Amino acid sequence: MTTVVPTSEEDPVLPVVRFTADLSWADAGPEVAEPLVTRLCMEAQECMVMGRWLDLASLMLTSAELVFPKVSDKDLECIFTVICNLASKLENPDDELEMAKLISTKISQQPNDKPAMRLKILFNLYNLLEGPDSRFFVYMQALNLALNGKVIDHIVPSFKKIDSFLKEWNIGVKDQRNLFLTIANVLKENKSSGKDSFKFLTKYLATFSGEDSCVIGEAKEEAIRAVIEFVKAPDTFWCDLLDMPAVGQLEKDAKYALVYQLLKIFLTQRLDAYLEFQAANSTLMKSYGLVHEDCITKMRLMSLVDLGSNESGQIPYALIKDALRINDDEVELWIVKAITAKLIDCKMDQMNQVVIVSRCTERIFGQHQWHSLRLKLATWRGNVASLISTIQANKVVEEGSQAMQGMAIR
């Protein structure tokens, strides 16, 4: 025997069930549609009586998906808000996770049908959920929907909050890898976000530190991609790829050793080393879509950075000309380019044909750079302490002098 649940006009579940069911079966004619709609409404009532919220959500999603192309975005948002609100009736985190999987998977199945609306529904669901596991699952579904439905711009702003999301979700390393790689892939499709794509790709590769060789091997293709993206990027001049085991595995790989060698040239050597490499591996360079002229431009700037890291803090014009393989009248042009790219802070002494460097960007930041920074900080600390001592000594002398003058006046 069926028990009918008494509902008020404020309860939106049954009206939504009837509305979507009516639309779903409208084309079948009243003789077919009415019994089916009635049966669906009765099933929904039974689910509500017995607290079978997952079954109720499944029933509602079936009809809602059928009417997706037939109703306005406003109506769709209302329908799915009611469905998503069923998650709030679940107190068990595992049940909530199952509900989140059920709804978000269903929403993501047709990414090309109103993708922006589907993404909005997933965001609404995310905000209704309490459990971190449920939220993480829905967010990953939203990422893939944005990528497959080509509505990337709608989800990119959320990437600024990834650090706080990670604290909230408290996910494991494998989930972090999946997250970082998916975000990198999403940003790769957005031409204006190449730098951010590279950032998340390096975050992905960094998660393989401390893993055994079998696990690290999973990241080989992404490691190659990161190297090539770094070499191609016209505005990225430093990275820590060389310190990552996921990238280091390429050094002894028969197929990809040359890719690792190219990265090492860009991070530790100068233009002459690159030109020698390119002459011997031009086919390899072309196979990865690397443009020789662009690489020369980047290597000239990075060679200038390398020259600027000289302890003397001065670079003769003649040395720049030879290292960058340029004419005399081009030296200052390349210095200006390096300043514009914020690679160095310097002054050009045209009289003495020398560049005086006050700051220079590091291409890599490893143990040597940390040691150098430690020495500079120690020197700075000593200078500050000496300055404070001098000021205090002068203050004592000045106070003593003032005291003597006061005695003389009396």
Quaternary structure of the protein:
single chain
Q: Biggest β-sheet: count, sense, barrel?
A: 3 strands, antiparallel
Order of helices and strands: HHHHHHHHHHHHHHHHHEHHEEH
Number of strands: 3
Tally of alpha and pi helices: 20
Averaging pLDDT over every residue, what do you get? 87
Low-confidence stretches: 1-9, 365-371
Give the terminus-to-terminus CA distance.
Answer: 115 Å
Helix percentage: 55-70%
Work out the count of structural domains: 3
Q: What strand line-up does the widest sheet have? A: 1-3-2
Q: Structural class, from helix and strand content?
A: mainly alpha
Strand content: under 5%
Radius of gyration: 32 Å
Question: Looking at the structure, what is the overall shape?
Answer: elongated
Main location: cytoplasm
GO cellular component, one term: eukaryotic translation initiation factor 3 complex, eIF3m
Subcellular location: Cytoplasm
Family: Belongs to the CSN7/EIF3M family. CSN7 subfamily. Belongs to the eIF-3 subunit M family.
